[in-house]
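>> received
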Amino acid sequence: MTSNAPQPRTKSFAVVSGKGGSGKTLIAAAIAAACADVGLETLLVDADFGTGGLTYYLGFSAFTGARAGLSEFFLGEEETPSIAKPTSDAVRNHPWIERVGLLPVGSHRLIDKKGTPILSEQIREVISLASPRFQVIIFDCRGGIDDHSLTVCKSVDDIVLVAETDAASIQATQYLVNILSDAGLKKNVAGFILNKVMDDPSSLANAARSLFNAEHLGSVPFDITTTREFIKGNVIPISSMFCRHVFKATSNLLPELHDFEKIKTLSSEEYGSITLRDPSIRFGGFFVGALSLYIPAVVFTLPAAIKNISQQNLTYVVVFIYVMLVLGALSDTIKKSIGNSMLFYRRSFQQLFMNRRR
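>> returned
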């Protein structure tokens, strides 16, 4: 029996920023990860005809077949948008990515070279063609508003702003909001995300609410590990500090994401503890420090349990342990190896917890 119940309408978003370098592309990818993680079929569209950052990022290892794309479709060289599927390795390492498709930017230089305008009808056609398969479509636009990005914003349901905490980014975002308002799109702005935060964001978030006249969705801390993985072209684990904060920041964009509101994130005061130091080295240092207190205490209790250990041999053991601990404390390589192991187990437990929660 065929159900006559109406199917849920595909929801479309544009992720935009007032200037380049705000981390907009990575946030767009993280929003897609959040949607896919709750079971929504999600399409990421690279609409940055200037740099094609999303294509170069995800096309490096996760979607290696990403060639022709949005540009070829707009130029009439492709009848339908060429949507790339994730590689088997990417799915094995990140199961949620199986529910993500990528529409790469394609030969975006042809768009600029020919001065080809992008029409709202074309963007809506992309959405229409993708709707039968995808429940969520996310457009990653160019950093800094241009005609192409403005056209995308006119064609989607909601707009998500991404701003850094420096004065230039805040001013550029305010200019972007003014452009969107002049185009009659102010009502479509779902809110803004502060990215790369390294201090208590409370006062800036309150000021930005007034400047942008928009909702503060959340603040995302600067995560050095995520930055390194992005530079390498690696998919960011959804258990990372970066993804957890993006998930919570976007928990109100869709009903399916509401449970992410419960994710544990940094309090306002804890942002001040963010460091550029590799967290694996920091975790390894904590572990070595704990061992330096715990192991000698255990060793000194051994004579009571094992009568044949001489005091001299016990001293040798303690000295050896302390030498090893000192070497570990002085070596970033050793601390990093220990820290990587600890972080691996922590991520595994976090992923297990998230799976059980759902």
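>> Residues 332-357 form the longest helix (26 residues).
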